[in-house]
What we know:
Blueprint: E1 3-8, H1 16-23, E2 29-36, E3 43-51, H2 54-64, E4 75-78
Antiparallel strand pairs: 1-3, 1-4, 2-3
Amino acid sequence: METKIYVGNLSYDTKEDDLRTLFAQAGTVASVALIKDRDTGQSKGFAFIEMSNQAEAEKAIQMFNSFSFGNRPLKVNLARPKEERSFGGGGGYGDKRGGPGGGYGRNGPGGGGGKSRRGPGNSGGQRRF
């Protein structure tokens, strides 16, 4: 069973091969996925690494959590399962009933924050008469 770990606080210059070499000290690295911005190709500063088993994953966490790599302390822990995304969760683009993440933007019902579809000059849930 392969076990996935999260590695955060990476320098934007870090390469997948750098991570593979570092984490190989803890055991067999099954895969490395350095997360990049899809538009720019720039690293987002975190990665997911799969170790070949649970014991090696735990060893990697003990060895490299807070380890200085590229003059930055790494944050290493077990990866959490990906949460399912739902539209409207950030506010502004959900339904206009004002439920969680719903509708009117930052100050109106729902309080979702983010951008409003109502356009400039009509922010929040304020009405203009």
